[in-house]
Amino acid sequence: MPGTGKTTLARRLAGVLRAAYLRVDAIETAVIRCGLAHPPVGPVGYVVAHEIAAGTLTLGVPVVVDAVNPVPEARIGWHELAKVGDLHILQTVIPDEIKHRRRATDRRPDLAGQTVPSWADVIAKEYRRWDEDRDGPRHVVDMTDTERGVTDALAYLNRPRDTHPGDR
Does the N-terminal peptide bond of residue 70 adopt cis geometry, omega within 30 degrees of 0? Predict the structure, then answer.
């Protein structure tokens, strides 16, 4: 969901891992700014990010993708890519709704032409609970405390592959 620390975590991970950083918000904002679409833009940001990530991974370059993935249709491509590559899915959360709301409402756009959702937009956004049978495995990162969340994510990513629950 918006306001859960995805961008903060993704930027930190990309820096530490020296990975390519792909942000769906940046792709969608660029598409809108160029006049190619009007909000909401549909799946275009996810499709573009997925294709760039897949191509980048084939070069042996690690990739961090910053995306909400609120519905199974947005998640399926990552699950499929994880079957053929070394891909881990992290889901950021802020379990306390008051803290999540504060985080979401304090956000400011950081891209030219970007709009950030209001709290009403965040809670109205379609979101379907993650189902590991349908959506594949993921690691949940509590970003209430940013440093603790980053540390948790890095510890998870640095474990040997066969110790990741659900990883194949």
Answer: no
Phi-psi region of 137 (alpha: psi -120 to 50; beta: other; left: phi over 0): beta
Q: How many domains does the chain have?
A: 1
Rounded to 5 degrees, φ, ψ at 25 are -55, -40
Phi, then psi, of 128 in degrees rounded to 5: -110, 130
Q: How far is CA 99 from the centre of its chain?
A: 19
- The span from the CA of 120 to the CA of 101, in Å, is 10
pTM over 0.85: yes
Tell me how far apart the alpha carbons of residues 8 and 14 are, in angstroms, rounded to a whole number. Answer: 10
Which tens digit of pLDDT belongs to each residue from 100-150? Answer: 999 999 999 999 889 899 999 999 989 999 999 999 999 999 999 999 999
Q: Which residue in 42, 51, 108, 116 sits closest to 81, CA to CA?
A: 51
What does the DSSP 8-state code read for residue 155?
A: H
Q: Is 166 part of a structural domain of the chain? A: no
| Cα 109 from Cα 91, distance rounded (Å) | 22
**CATH number of the domain where residue 13 is located:** 3.40.50.300
| DSSP bridge partners of 92 | 141
Is the CB of residue 92 less than 8 Å from the CB of residue 146?
Answer: no
